[in-house]
Amino acid sequence: MSNSSSITNFLLLAFADRRELQLLHFWLFLGIYLAALLGNGLIITTIACDHHLHTPMCFFLLNLSLLDLGSISTTLPKAMASSLWDNTDISYKACAAQLFFFVFLMSAELYLLTIMSYDRYVAICKPLHYGTLLGSRACVHMAAAAWGSGFLTTLLHTANTFSLPLCQGNALDQFFCEIPQILKLSCSHSYLREFGLIIITCFLVFVCFVFIVVSYVEIFRAVLRIPSEQGRHKAFSTCLPHLTVVSLFVSTAIFAYLKPPSIFSPSLDLVVAVLYSVVPPAVNPLIYSMRNQELKNALKKLISR
User: Fold this and answer.
1) DSSP string, 265-280
2) What's the angle, vertex CA 279, arms to CA 105 and CA 96, rounded to 5?
3) How far is CA 240 from CA 109, 243, 244, 252, in A?
4) Ramachandran bin of 169, using left for φ above 0, alpha for ψ from -120 to 50, beta for the remaining angles
5) CA-closest candidate to residue 66, choices 29, 102, 41, 99
6) What is the rounded distance in angstroms from the CA atom of residue 286 to the CA atom of residue 291?
7) How do residues 118-153 score in pLDDT, each as one tens digit?
8) What predicted TM-score, i.e. pTM, was given to this entire model?
9) Exposed e or buried b for every residue in 81-117, given b needs 16+ CB within 10 A?
């Protein structure tokens, strides 16, 4: 019986067996990755260089872009290399590092999205208290709490997952190292400890999602009282995409981690993983930032220079 100490590498799931399809996936992921790098990089540069954008919302957007850059850089480069070189091997240590950074960045992103929904709620529903509730020190503390909570969450999951004895081979049914796929390789009931942690984490994720939904419901109620139809349309067109992306992110992530073992479909697992790991970092620059007129104006000034 082999265990985790005897495993030196894992085999990731290939997107395709035919060489033509592998190259197609490479170019597709390269385009998505470059778009994410460009979009998030422009947001970070614009906010950092324009002092007019040193506001709570833009500060949180800056953190969101940093998290998006990190999370998509954790999974896509390896996936692109696997498709280009037709080699799905990943070392044990590299797999542990990939899992740690991915879960860390995605967990911190969810906590940050929760904070951003609170920021929008206070800005629209309690504008007179905005400066008091979201001062510069409070914003730094909340952002630090999001990063710190994500780090602690990930530390527990990574330590638990890679302490399990593995004896079901080394093939993972996913294009990156994902906790549920590693748990499938476990050969003892000790995986139930990590599964229990996953349930607790998913409950916290659900609580964050409920908080986000309630915040936006309150925002929509306040928006409906706006006398200007143009103002209502602008508010709805900004908030609805936010809620849509968060819903996609949370629902697919929970499904990936709590999917019943009876539902076995590598193709479905791949689609779900792409929806929660690749799509949000790629579209967040458009959803959260390009509808911000101040940011768009600052970006035009930066490009014109």
Assistant:
1) -HHHHHHHHHHHHTHH
2) 35
3) 19, 5, 6, 18
4) left
5) 41
6) 7
7) 998 998 888 888 888 898 899 999 999 999 999 999
8) 0.90
9) ebbeeeebebebeebbebbbbbbbbbbbbbbbbbbbb
Tell me the one-letter amino acid at 42.
L
DSSP secondary structure of the chain? ---GGG--EEEPPPS-SSHHHHHHHHHHHHHHHHHHHHHHHHHHHHHHH-GGG-SHHHHHHHHHHHHHHHHHHHHHHHHHHHHHHT--EEEHHHHHHHHHHHHHHHHHHHHHHHHHHHHHHHHHH-GGGHHHHT-HHHHHHHHHHHHHHHHHHHHHHHHHHTTS-B-S-SB-SSSS--HHHHHTTB-STTHHHHHHHHHHHHHHHHHHHHHHHHHHHHHHHHHHT-S-HHHHHHHHHHHHHHHHHHHHHHHHHHHHHH--TT---HHHHHHHHHHHHTHHHHHHIIIIITT-HHHHHHHHHHHH-
Percent of the chain at pLDDT exceeding 90: 45
Type of residue numbered 40:
N
pLDDT, the chain, mean: 87
Tens of pLDDT, residues 170-221: 889 889 999 988 988 887 666 677 788 888 899 999 999 999 999 999 988 8
Largest CA distance in the chain: 71
Structure tokens at 84: 């280009």
